From TrEMBL:
Belongs to the sigma-70 factor family. ECF subfamily. It comes from the Bacteria. The keyword DNA-binding applies. Residues 16-79 form the RNA polymerase sigma-70 region domain. Keywords: DNA-binding, Sigma factor, Transcription, Transcription regulation. Residues 112-161 form the RNA polymerase sigma factor 70 region 4 type domain. One of its GO terms (molecular function) is DNA binding. One of its GO terms (biological process) is DNA-templated transcription initiation. InterPro entries: RNA_pol_sigma-70-like (IPR039425), RNA_pol_sigma-70_dom (IPR014284), RNA_pol_sigma-E_actinobac (IPR014325), RNA_pol_sigma70_r2 (IPR007627), RNA_pol_sigma70_r4_t2 (IPR013249), RNA_pol_sigma_r2 (IPR013325), RNA_pol_sigma_r3/r4-like (IPR013324), WH-like_DNA-bd_sf (IPR036388). The keyword Transcription regulation applies. This is RNA polymerase sigma-E factor.
Amino acid sequence: MAGGDWTEFEEFVAVCGPRLLRSAWFLTGDRHLAEDLLQSALARVWPKWGRIAEENPEAYVRRTLVHLHASWWRRHWRREVPHSQVPEPSSRGGPAGAYPQVGEVDQGRTIIGLLRLLPRRQREVVVLRYLEDLSVEQTAAVLGCSTGTVKSQASKALNTLRTRLPGLDAGLVPAPEPVRGRAAPK
């Protein structure tokens, strides 16, 4: 099923692929699952390429990526067995070209380990909002939810991370934005 200009699609993947793969890696925590997730998202997008290429194809693919991840997560979570301790992060690094260089790989693994502490929706918000640097509005559009949901999920996620890592540098995990219309706590 032809979706549009194949050369244009290949160029898009060459330019945006590493960023999208990075997002997939942070969502899944596994290099190979990230590659599978991105490949599935691109396969879903290709038939519609002629229609979406004119708009914002990266946002469309990112949204497809997040939705597929949620679907995979719902399908596979029943097979997971809870443990009393969080397992050590995988020794596998991130996809080539999509992640930090040698000295920064440990930081990427640390981030993946931290993201595993969060429920799926909070992880999605943190990846899109803070690691992909999307605005609250853009994150809400990708996730198909309200801006209030993005803010509340980000706040809960950051509080969880601060609780687990009390010495975390304030610059790495920003303080939550104040909610307008509510009185400050006394």
